[in-house]
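hey so u asked for the seq, here:
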Amino acid sequence: MRKGMTLIEALIAMVVIAVLSTLGYIGAEEYIASAKATKIIMNLHTLKKALWAWYVDNRDKVQSDGRVKMNLNGDPQPIQQWQRNSDNLKLSNYLKRFGTSGIKFYQTSKDETVTGRQRTDLVEGYYGICDGGTSRDSKGNETASYRNNWYAGYRFKSDEAAVRQKILGRLESSGGLWLGTADAHETPKGDNSQAVWLKVR
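ran it, structure tokens below
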């Protein structure tokens, strides 16, 4: 009666274990990307609800052109100017009502193209709110304003290409999502986009 395994049997067992481990790793990566995509989509829909609740409570602070005036002394500003960095709109209070916390709002960075101005692009891994901005002609003159269009968004991290692909595959079934730049402008190809957006109003 033979005891133990032959060298061939041991090698076969090792190959089978290696293949199963690899398949398990690939499956886990898919699962993690899918879970992250689901969380981002759910957070954006919750952020949309929170912003609508804020709007109902603060309608008197929102001008007809979509800009927001938060105090008597200040000039009306695009909504992203108020929300950046410090949660000036107090959206975190509204998010708590919907049972969501931990949504990080975007930080600002200096805009090197305009003195004294901060960029309103979302930072990687952060959520934020942007309006549709303005369009300009070749001479830099403003031709149209889309400040009334508000969007909730999330900017992908550099290592979230798989998450972006998962969201790209769910655009049609996720209620108004679209992919674009970090400041809420559409990109021709969704797979090259920096952020995912959901229209609020």
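The chain has a mean pLDDT of 81. The radius of gyration is 23 Å.
lmk if thats what u needed
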